[in-house]
Amino acid sequence: MDNPQSLKFINDLASYFNALPGVGRKTAQRYALQLLKQDDDFLKGFGKTLAELKSNIHECKICHNLTELEICSVCSSPSRNGELICVVEDIRDVLAIENTHQFRGKYHILGGVISPMDGVGPTDLNIESLIDRVKNNPEIKEVLLALRITMEGDTTNFFLYKKLNGVDVKITTIARGVSFGEQIEYTDEVTLAKSILNRVPYES
Q1: Whether residues 48 and 84 fall in one domain
Q2: H helix intervals, 37-111
Q3: Is 62 among the domain residues?
Q4: How many CB atoms lie within 10 A of CB 176?
Q5: Taking Cα atoms as reference points, which of 165, 148, 65, 61 lies closest to residue 105?
Q6: What is the pTM of this model?
Q7: Does residue 64 lie in a domain region?
Q8: In terms of domains, do 21 and 82 share one?
Q9: What is the pLDDT of residues 44-57, one digit of tens each?
Q10: How far is the C-alpha of 51 from the C-alpha of 101, rounded, in Å?
């Protein structure tokens, strides 16, 4: 069957949506067709936002969260508890924890977990900046490890525990209300909130 050239642009647009995680081919096509129904102002704004995305969003120089400024709103907020640092894998975990409305500390985003099978080692993550941050900031009293409940997450927890051994901070981890193998971003808000509130001392 002939593929009409008039659909090439739609197919090209759909391929970009299809490249996003969780967006299948049919959903990508629906997104592309839906954009055709939008007015010119919407499309211009959409295109402008996409074009400026990389230049306007960067990592917070303290916690590696995404921000439009040098320091993110969490790190700069005087109402957040600077004594408690929650270590997470990425920005999606921050959003999940913030949605629980139960955590008022600050964050440190590693950018992943140690996974030799995937070629990810400690030097590929924001680990040294975490260690320096904890060692050089006497305000920090507790480091809460809130990584995925998997072998990779546990390996990373243990590595961080060893690196922070000897530093005068309490090291805790989320309670195991979160099932083994589950990622933080997919955990329901009630379970995640309880896991944070009922955190326990980390035991290697």
Answers
A1: no
A2: 40-56, 73-76, 91-98
A3: no
A4: 11
A5: 65
A6: 0.76
A7: no
A8: no
A9: 999 999 998 888 89
A10: 33
